[in-house]
Design the sequence.
């Protein structure tokens, strides 16, 4: 496979290993498939093209690679104990950051990895937390005049998200995260998900790989990504993601939007053409600019990039060299 199609010229040295789907899939052939067809159906997102072949050829090798990283982190922890000549606290959870655009399928990727990693006996407790819960409540977004910029970096309680990840990496037995409801399009007051003594934590969200910002005094703060042990970016052509977003919007108009409690119930009555126009407007004004300005620039920070084709199947994998 030529490197020229995504920023590198053939023969040019690179800090990445790139494998096309066939070469990547071959890495999983000797590994037993841990998920059943029923389990795959339960974890896939609305409209995501996910089947046993995709899990076998793409996510099985990835889960095995991640398992090797987790195992290596444990060995390094033991070596550090020996070096310091003192008994260290138990190893902290292995934290995986997972980023990508709206509608690219990152939630499905996160759920598949959670289920697959939990099947490996070395790390049965795998927690998944989405950064949606750390969005500021709608009332606060409205007060700040940025409700229309939901999903942009400034719409999150970044201090709370950073504290959550720091607490995880500090080895606290139990850490709480807020819960977000896609039905009511808001954070659920007084409801929390408790992450209890996990072996692995997957943190999934649009902007989780962002670098730290510069403070008013000129100092650079900490970023959530500073505490990731491994990171994955789910990538695709912007034109494909835009189409997937519109397709998903049309499906939701026929399903979730019909729930009277849904924040988006007003869209249920739209005609097909009106729904397409509204989805296009939302993409062009919100999701598209956020992707271009904030999400895509973090792709190069990922340990591994999964590049999807127009049909949602992963076409190639890029892994940072060690």
Sequence:
């Amino acid at each position: 496979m030529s490197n020229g199609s995504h920023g590198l010229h053939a023969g040019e040295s690179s800090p990445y290993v790139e494998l096309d789907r066939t070469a990547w899939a071959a890495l999983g052939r000797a590994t037993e498939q841990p998920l059943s067809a029923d389990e795959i159906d339960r974890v896939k997102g609305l409209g995501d093209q996910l089947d046993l072949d995709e899990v076998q050829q793409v996510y099985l090798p990835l889960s095995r690679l991640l398992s090797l990283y987790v195992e290596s982190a444990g060995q390094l922890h033991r070596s550090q104990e020996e070096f310091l000549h003192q008994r260290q606290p138990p190893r902290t959870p292995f934290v995986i950051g997972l980023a990508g655009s709206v509608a690219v399928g990152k939630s499905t990727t996160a759920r598949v990895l959670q289920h697959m990693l939990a099947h490996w006996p070395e790390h049965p407790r795998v927690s998944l937390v989405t950064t949606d819960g750390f969005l500021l409540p709608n009332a606060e977004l409205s007060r700040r005049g940025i409700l229309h910029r939901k999903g942009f970096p400034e719409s999150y309680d970044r201090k709370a998200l950073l504290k959550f990840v720091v607490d995880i990496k500090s080895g606290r037995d139990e850490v709480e995260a807020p819960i977000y409801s896609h039905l009511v399009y808001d954070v659920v007051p007084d409801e929390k998900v408790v992450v209890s003594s996990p072996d692995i934590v997957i943190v999934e969200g649009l902007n989780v790989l962002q670098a730290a910002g510069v403070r008013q005094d000129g100092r650079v703060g900490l970023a959530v990504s500073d505490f990731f042990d491994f990171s994955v970016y789910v990538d695709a052509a912007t034109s494909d993601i835009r189409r997937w977003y519109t397709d998903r919007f049309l499906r939701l108009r026929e399903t979730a939007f019909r729930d009277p409690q849904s924040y988006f119930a007003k869209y249920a009555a739209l005609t097909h053409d009106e729904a397409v126009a509204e989805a296009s407007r939302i993409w062009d004004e919100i999701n598209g600019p956020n992707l271009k300005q904030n999400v895509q620039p973090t792709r190069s920070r990922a340990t591994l990039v999964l590049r999807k084709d127009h049909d949602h199947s992963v076409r190639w994998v890029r892994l940072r060299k060690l």
The two ends are 21 Å apart (CA to CA). The beta strands are 16-20, 94-100, 126-130, 174-181, 186-196, 200-204, 230-235, 304-308, 314-320. The CA atoms of residues 112 and 212 lie 29 Å apart. The chain has a mean pLDDT of 90.
